[in-house]
Amino acid sequence: MDEWEEQETATSGTCALTSHTSNAGMFHFRFSDRGEFQRGECRKTMEPLQEASCAEDSANDGDSQNNTAERSSFSRRGGRGGGVCVWGGYILLVISVEFKLPVHRSAACQLYLPLCAAFLFLTAGPRVTYVPPPPSEDEESIFSHYESGVNFDKYDEILVDVSGTNPPPAIMTFDEAALCESLKRNVSKSGYVKPTPVQKHGIPIVSAGRDLMACAQTGSGKTAAFLLPILQQLMADGAAASCFSETQEPEAIIVAPTRELINQIYLEARKFAYGTCVRPVVVYGGVSTGHQIRDLSRGCNVLCGTPGRLLDMIGRGKVGLTKVRYLVLDEADRMLDMGFEPDMRRLVGSPGMPSKENRQTLMFSATFPEDIQRLAADFLKTDYLFLAVGIVGGACSDVEQTFVQVTKFAKRDQLLDLLKSTGSARTMVFVETKRQADFIAVILCQEKFPTTSIHGDREQWQREQALGDFRSGKCPVLVATSVGARGLDIPDVQLVVNFDLPNNIDEYVHRIGRTGRCGNTGRAVSFYDPEANSELAQSLVTILSKAQQEVPSWLEAAAFSGHGPSGFNPPRKHFASTDLRKGPQGGLFQDSSVTSQLAAQTAADDEEWE
Ligand SMILES: Nc1ncnc2c1ncn2[C@@H]1O[C@H](COP(=O)(O)OP(=O)(O)OP(=O)(O)O)[C@@H](O)[C@H]1O
């Protein structure tokens, strides 16, 4: 089961319990012959990681939680003793009901209290008290950045297509973006000399007030493409200076699927808005709600949030929506897939939220499957523009992709060999499950590779510490589940290892995009287990050939044997747009930059990917 699924199912108590025990240790229970219940020792199944063990970890990630999930998450800090007692009662109830065991009357009475408490515990949830350290106020660290790489200028060669009616002309320089002085200064302090293609086209589109669905390769600067024009407009219109109020009415709302990603976007917004009257705020799960409410009440123009916590704040009346002018969905295809779509519909349907005709909606991602494009149209004005930089859903061409055919039992040794050969290169290792993430991290630590892990079963402070240790190089290896696949912009990641390949090609594209960012080169090594990954073979061949990379003959053979229609697409130098509205014949409207033949070709390619 992948992490997203786990997060979503983990909202029920029983699931959370299973996940907790599997992660933290094994509880042993036995009954006396009078039906009384005794709790045995709690035995750890594995050595703790470098940081604190996961004994208090939550089964809920909180990234994809809705309000209920946020409040009903199982183990949070505080009330551990009560939690154990309640768990005891709860477990006994489940076991005795399940196996029709006779429970002694006095024992049963003793249990009612904890059971009632358990009910409250499960419905209300213990309080989350974690308060993250405040971000640095030091100008140098606010503007710290890594250098763009040797291939940065090659971005200009990527073919770009804007489809839809009357797109505004692209800008070639930041000067043409007509940013106000303070924004210009902040852009320059961030080390930005010239805009990337998604910025050249995206900034004028947003500034022209158009709705936008933008697809550009990982690490190519999508965040600034929406932040800069929004901040510019807010400043030009004289966004009300932030002031204290119990209910804040932000002008822009930005949502993203994970806590770490939304925090990163917030820090970018804070950087670009530095020294201006625009105040960004971030809200996400796993952190004290009271702390975030206090922060919010100090003023908020741009609110960044994960869906669960955002809806929670709206539900509590801490955020009003009547002034919303911009709604941004980063990783939009993820925000509109089955996991988050209901939350997004709840958000746009919340009282006060302007209708799509009366707000500007912007969607960004490196991948945009057709079914999601279709769905996205519900949130966008009918004349939205579709911006495609390069091949929609394509892998970043600056990442060298290698595949190793390996059985699941040989993966561990293969990983150790690989890490030994790469020295201290900063490496992200992706695995399928949270449990596997801890397991691999422990093994690597034992083998003297300083390693940490990030996944949805870790407390938020542990996740943030893990990311911090990875960023700083204290732990040059980070083992991650899908929670680390999208959006994270970490300097100098040289290698991504797919210890377990994902079961979805888009996830593969996002994972390998953690390296090879901003014109830098990177490397991805994927362990292909023929038993488990044959379903992915065809999509991998397509992705590799589109990125003009060598396709191993065994992978090509696997792609052609058995699964789906045969044939993959030969490497093409050309861009082809896949704006769904064009249809196979070239579409509902005219655009000048691509031939309908190419469009048709890619539409067919995309069908193969799914
Ligand atoms: N014009 C620019 N000049 C120099 N650096 C830039 C420019 N635009 C963006 N960057 C830097 O490039 C890096 C990647 O940008 P960003 O995180 O916005 O990529 P992205 O397209 O959103 O990636 P992903 O698809 O993985 O979310 C960041 O460190 C960002 O500061």
Write a structural description.
The protein is α/β, with parallel strands linked by helices and 610 residues long. It has 23 helices and 16 strands. It has an 8-stranded mixed sheet, with helices on both faces. The chain has a 6-stranded parallel sheet with strand order 11-16-15-12-14-13, with helices on both faces. Helix 19 links the parallel strand 15 and strand 16. The protein is globular, with a radius of gyration of 25 Å. The two termini are 19 Å apart. The N terminus and C terminus are likely disordered. Adenosine-5'-triphosphate (ATP) binds next to helix 9. GO terms for molecular function: ATP binding; hydrolase activity; nucleic acid binding; RNA helicase activity. Belongs to the DEAD box helicase family. DDX4/VASA subfamily. Keywords: ATP-binding, Helicase, Hydrolase, Meiosis, Nucleotide-binding.
Compose a concise summary of this entry.
The chain contains 23 helices and 16 strands.
Question: Biggest β-sheet, characterized?
Answer: 8 strands, mixed
Helix content: 25-40%
Per the principal axes of the C-alpha atoms, what is the gross shape? globular
Classification by helices and strands: alpha/beta
How much of the sequence is in beta strands? 5-15%
Number of strands: 16
Mean pLDDT, rounded to whole units?
Answer: 80
Count of helix runs: 23
Q: Give the N-terminus to C-terminus distance in angstroms.
A: 19 Å
